[in-house]
Predict the structure.
Amino acid sequence: MANRYFIGQGTLSVALRNTDGTPQTFRELGNCPNLELNVDEEFVEHYESESGFRRLDLMIRTRLQVSFNFAVENFNLDNWLMVYNGSSGTGAADEEVIYAFNTDPVDFWLKFEGMNIAEQRKPVTVNVFRARLEANSGFAFIGEDVAKVDLTGFAQYDALNSDKGGFFTITQKKAT
């Protein structure tokens, strides 16, 4: 069996969710230099007591948490509003005003459409059905590098997409 390696690049998009669990219109976030999905599980472990070796003979998953993190470097109005749970206001004719943290957080559908550079740029798609975002970094209004905001969040279980696992899917081309 040949190993399959992964080096990814691509585009991250978000969409609000419809009441039936499907995404509304996707909006690309622009340059996102990283995207990571993390899975954290806890188990109850049972060890047998018949052999004298106390071997692990049963594991029951008691907790499953899916989280993610990514960075946004594109600061258009929609991204500012998403990052800071804001709404927009009116300023001078050529100004956009962002009112930060004056709306409740919403659930998004995240979609990564990318490629695996290690496999001749074959397409890879990741869909996170019900994502809640949290801004977890400061923003460098003064700095030497391109400014970015690091976002984290959790993929909440989505019963409307339980037939797909309830959290996320990964789609890639079959090995050849």
